[in-house]
User: Fold these one by one.
Assistant:
Number 1:
Amino acid sequence: MTQKQFPFPRTARILRKRDFQRVFDGHQAVKGPAMTLLYLPNGLEESRIGLVVGKKLGNSPQRNRIKRVLREAFRLHRHELPKPMDVVALPRDPLISFEDAVGALGKLAERLQKAKQA
């Protein structure tokens, strides 16, 4: 898996307050042991991710590590989402692993597939 195979352009990130607020206001959630994912269809051509990592999770290097892990997991697995979504990740564990992040995204994709079939 290379960067060219699964690019992560700036357009794949939620950056504006109003976009975050839209997800917070009308979201559905997938909760896991390490984090919660809020999601909402976005009507765009691609899925996007927003990260909310509070200071309770550690100092800035620790929080930045969490963000890197979540962005990488999303970059590699966003193509599994059945339709374009805005996803906001709310980690609860400062020691979140790449496997935990991938597991939460897989759970989200599985839930969306089931909802699509119903």
Number 2:
Amino acid sequence: MLRQATPVLLAVLVVSGCAQPRDEASDHLGILAVEAELCRAFEAGYTAALRRHLTPDFTLVDSRGRGAGLAENLAKLERGQPDYEVFRNHGQRIRLHGDAAIVTGITSIRGTAAGSPFAAEFRFTDTWVRSGNGWALAASHASALPR
């Protein structure tokens, strides 16, 4: 009986993920890859990628202290407001906490809004959560850096 149960037990452990420890380096790379994809999506106004990698209850608190949910953020991008030429994150620091991660860094942006060019840098704090589909961004806060 034990010989028959052993393959079944091993299969359950492998499928449930218990047999494979989490790899911190892979988590870091995975978060950075999704973050880079989100930056490219903001540049291109590609809302499908944002829907895929932002949680349904995503919230952004901008540098003026205004909060906006997923629908409002997507609607602005669909209207091309603002129109980003550059949207890049750099200097990221990732701290893992189980199925959550906190990422801090700098976002550099350049583009046009209401017909006027702009360029700015922001210090950001992002809160990521792991689900069955990988890492998703749940909340973000940005503070403008002095010029």
